[in-house]
């Protein structure tokens, strides 16, 4: 990444945010508080210009805090300032300071950007279609949780000795209404996919893979920003928290490689369910599962391996833009050269 003169750290909250400018360790931070609103955004950019901070000599860094930082990200991007969004735990691990408040946090974020400037990745706004799909998927998940809660409540009410028809009717109507809303959301997502030719073509390719349905494709589409990022299977598996990571040191520390189970829960759950489906309905995968279990491997471990295999297939198809071929075998080109 291009070397910058100024590194601006932002600690954002619901109503306000603190910004700190860092240039070199020999100079003190310059900090100021602003409101988390359009007026505050404009005052923030005007303050940067007063401090001779321009898009060409600076980089802005803030923690990914969801909806709190969303509007500021889009505004800063519209002003052509380079922006980086970092996971909060990364910034936290980089410091051991005991003091904590919004001003100190913004100063630490600016120092983090200075220290790790060679590892920062610039943030780019998602397309409006991807942004809408992400919101709809989150809304769908929330509605499903509400429907599940109502189903459990209805089941409990029906088990009582003294029945209450009004309560049962109310829960059933709520369940039916939520089901219709979920169905409406799924239809709207499909309409959005069809508006983009690339997304629609990629959907045809990815869903040609056994056990990969529409919902898994939607989540993968949002996660990879339209299959433009994290196409590497190892990176994607690590992001979902299913890639095994080694933990050893010398001869005294040696732990079995295991997955961290971190990352977004929704796509990880869908990949796990797809792995279960492959284990049950795919002949080759079923034989692989039974063979590994017979060797003494844990069933959950083998399912995790199947999930990693599935991600490899998904990434290969997204990269090559070719549909899934049943029984396809990859051949090393060197073998073909040796045989000629």
Automatic annotation (TrEMBL):
Domain Transposase IS116/IS110/IS902 C-terminal: 204-288
One of the GO BP terms on file: DNA transposition
GO molecular function: DNA binding; transposase activity
InterPro entries: Transp_IS110-like_N (IPR002525), Transpos_IS110 (IPR047650), Transposase_20 (IPR003346)
Domain Transposase IS110-like N-terminal: 8-157
Pfam entry (one): DEDD_Tnp_IS110
Residue stretches spanning the membrane: none
Name used for this protein in its record: Uncharacterized protein
Organism of provenance: marine sediment metagenome
């Amino acid at each position: 990444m291009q070397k910058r003169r100024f590194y601006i750290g932002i600690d954002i909250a619901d109503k306000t945010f603190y910004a700190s400018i860092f240039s070199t360790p020999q100079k003190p931070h310059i900090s100021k508080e602003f409101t988390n609103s359009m007026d505050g955004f404009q005052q923030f950019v005007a303050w940067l210009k007063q401090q001779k901070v321009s898009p060409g000599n600076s980089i802005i860094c803030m923690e990914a805090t969801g909806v709190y930082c969303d509007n500021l990200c889009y505004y800063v991007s519209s002003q052509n300032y380079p922006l980086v969004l970092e996971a909060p735990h990364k910034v936290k691990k980089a410091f051991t300071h005991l003091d904590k408040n919004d001003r100190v946090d913004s100063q630490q974020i600016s120092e983090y950007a200075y220290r790790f400037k060679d590892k920062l990745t610039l943030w780019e706004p998602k397309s409006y279609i991807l942004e809408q799909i992400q919101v709809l998927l989150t809304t769908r998940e929330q509605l499903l949780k509400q429907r599940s809660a109502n189903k459990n409540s209805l089941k409990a009410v029906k088990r009582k000795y003294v029945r209450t028809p009004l309560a049962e009717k109310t829960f059933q109507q709520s369940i039916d209404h939520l089901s219709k809303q979920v169905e409406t959301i799924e239809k709207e997502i499909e309409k959005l996919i069809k508006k983009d030719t690339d997304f629609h073509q990629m959907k045809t390719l990815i869903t040609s893979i056994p056990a990969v349905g529409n919902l898994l494709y939607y989540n993968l589409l949002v996660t990879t920003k339209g299959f433009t990022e994290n196409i590497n299977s190892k990176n994607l598996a690590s992001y979902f928290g299913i890639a095994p990571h080694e933990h050893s040191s010398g001869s005294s520390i040696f732990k079995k490689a295991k997955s961290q189970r971190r990352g977004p829960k929704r796509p990880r759950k869908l990949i796990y369910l797809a792995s279960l489906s492959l284990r049950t309905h795919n002949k080759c995968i079923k034989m692989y599962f039974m063979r590994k279990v017979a060797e003494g491997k844990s069933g959950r471990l083998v399912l995790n391996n199947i999930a990693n295999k599935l991600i490899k297939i998904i990434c290969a198809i997204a990269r090559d833009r070719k549909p899934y071929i049943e029984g396809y075998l990859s051949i090393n080109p060197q073998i073909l050269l040796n045989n000629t």
